[in-house]
């Protein structure tokens, strides 16, 4: 479990800005499970806007805009110390269309999908 919780390229969970944002969002809530308010906060505070980039949590926190990749990256960084990872899906296996989506998974005794988009 520890290796999936470490900061990594563009999921800068140890960055001061991410840590401060997490503290502001959570306030006095010290629930050890991934705080659901993080998902709601990202949904409400990151504008849904298509972008072409490799998302960085710190940059998304600064710009407050992006598509599913940016939402998932920021939410993952906010929850990383509490147990989260990022997931990706390519639905539409039974169609000739290509679809792509990114989301966050949080560990609550089992992996639970959290989609902040």
Question: What is the fold's blueprint, element by element?
Answer:
Elements: H1 2-5, H2 16-26, H3 37-45, E1 47-48, H4 57-63, E2 65-66, H5 68-79, E3 84-89, E4 101-107, E5 111-114
Parallel strand pairs: 1-2
Antiparallel strand pairs: 3-4, 4-5
Helix pairs in contact: 2-5, 3-5, 4-5
Summed over residues and divided by their number, the pLDDT gives a mean of: 79
Poorly predicted runs of 5 or more residues: none
Number of strands: 5
> CATH fold name, please?
C8orf32 fold
The figure for the number of domains is 1
Distance between the termini: 25 Å
Biggest sheet architecture: 3 strands, antiparallel
Radius of gyration: 14 Å
As a percent range, the share of strand residues is 15-25%
Q: What's the shape?
A: globular
Provide the CATH top-level class: Alpha Beta
Specify the CATH architecture: Roll
The sequence of SSEs as H and E is: HHHEHEHEEE
The order of strands across the largest sheet is 3-4-5
- How many alpha or pi helices? 5
- Percentage of residues in helical conformation: 25-40%
Which structural class is indicated by helix and strand composition? alpha+beta
